[in-house]
Fold this protein.
Amino acid sequence: MRHKSLVEREPGWYDFLVARITRQVFRMRDTLDPPMVATRPEPGARGVSPRYRIQAIERAVAILNAFSPEDPELGVTELAERLGLHKSTVHRFMVNLDAAGLVERNPRTGRYRLGLRIFELGGLVMQQMNLWDEALPFLEGLVHDTGETGHLAVLDGGEAIYIERVEARRALRVPSAIGRGYPAHATNLGKVLLADLPRERVAAIVAERGLAAYTPHTITDLGRLEAELDRIRALGYAVDNEEYDEGLRCIGAPVRDHSGHVVAALGIGGPVTRITPDRVDALAELVMTAARGLSRRLGAHRSGAYAPAALRVRTTSSQEPVLRPAGA
């Protein structure tokens, strides 16, 4: 089973185009700067020296920033009211932005929406964002904070393919290799990746590949695997408790892109003598923080699917963590 394309999911080409352009421009903008909370900055608020400020550019940027997923189309009057500008001033800007392809006028409504040139610019930004390059600083930071080996993996069929590794400078290192596939059902990163799939897809993978036992702790029953995946979805992280290699315990969390789908898994692994049960919750928080940071770089903070996971926190007083909203 495959995920439907955006075109297939959208009710019509027009709605798809407007939604895609809007999401793309916000990905481009928030990739370069952290998102602003509640209100957008006033012109010049990013610390531009007054001697370099150009009012026309500031106003053009403010107009583009006024569009959002909630307001993909805006009229001249709405823009003028929001920005505190005269309608004639906004009209002149819209005519010029339209000529540049940065906005376009909807002939049916007379309102403006972001133009295809914005979409093209956003695509250029995303082409420059390489998963490996973006992931490495987060993996290195995670290894520094935990003292354990870090890994990044993607799903290929029923295997978690390790595509990046940062070695901890400690004895008893994790035996793993970049480019090698590991059984998804028996590894922390693999289980994270399976947890994003529909149940039917997981069942199809199991039917094709089976659930081989690698240690006495490996999950070898589809029902138990489905329960484990439900738990991972609820907690926001997965634990490999000596399920692939005896003596090793690993923790992984999902990395999401702008669509909200899991595109990779990031985690750490080490001997059970260091990653003890009483440290799992604290280490899991560090792993999830790194995964959230990488996800943010990939635009996930603009997806509805990512938001609930970003709010989850765990208590540390129980082996069965209790979920509660952040700030509760």
About this structure: The domain at 130-325 is CATH 3.30.450.40 (Beta-Lactamase). The radius of gyration is 23 Å. The chain has a mean pLDDT of 79.
